[in-house]
TrEMBL record:
Pfam families: HPPK. This is 2-amino-4-hydroxy-6-hydroxymethyldihydropteridine pyrophosphokinase. Belongs to the HPPK family. Gene3D superfamilies: 7,8-Dihydro-6-hydroxymethylpterin-pyrophosphokinase HPPK (3.30.70.560).
Length: 162
């Protein structure tokens, strides 16, 4: 079993319901059916495609799935929830990104782990810190060293009931 962290994002078709449904689906990938999920955060979209703000979170669980099998399962969940890949950084019903797969470092055509953009994205780092404040990334960087006041201002935590 290996501990993984998955980023969740949605900004179409009732984003909160999309994240809630995705969390239920992720439990089926967890080796023990257990899942830890950060609070939900609201953030502005990346890029210059006009679209609504996102809801984001990070989930942690253990799995027996190999990296590519996990990626396939994550993409299957996205597809089941209506994900359409038409525009890069465009609006979406659900986006699931594999951030960390234990302490593995992978760079293959379909998958890069740790996720290539995670060190600079507030909507990933802040919820990740909620789950694992003492986390050391595979490169040796401590998670807390990446958190700046500017990043904290880029997201807004939703209430405890999301």
């Amino acid at each position: 079993m290996i501990t993984v962290y998955v980023a969740l994002g949605a900004n179409l078709a009732s984003p909160k319901a999309q994240l809630d449904q995705a969390c239920e689906a992720l439990k089926s990938l967890a080796s023990d059916g257990q899942l830890s999920v950060s609070p939900y955060y609201q953030s502005a979209p990346m890029g210059d495609v006009p679209q609504p703000d996102y809801l984001n979170a990070v989930a942690r669980f253990t799995t027996k799935l190999a990296p590519l099998a996990l990626l396939d399962a994550l993409q299957g969940i996205e597809n089941e929830q209506g994900r359409v890949r038409e525009v890069r950084w465009g609006a979406r019903t659900l986006d699931l990104d594999l951030l960390l797969y234990g302490d593995w470092q992978l760079d293959i055509p379909r998958l890069k782990v740790p996720h290539y953009g995670m060190k600079t994205r507030s909507f990933v780092l802040i919820p990740l810190m909620d789950l694992a404040p003492d986390l050391i990334l595979p490169c040796g960087t401590g998670l807390t060293s990446l958190i700046t006041e500017e990043l904290k201002c880029q997201v807004q935590q939703l209430g405890p009931d999301h």
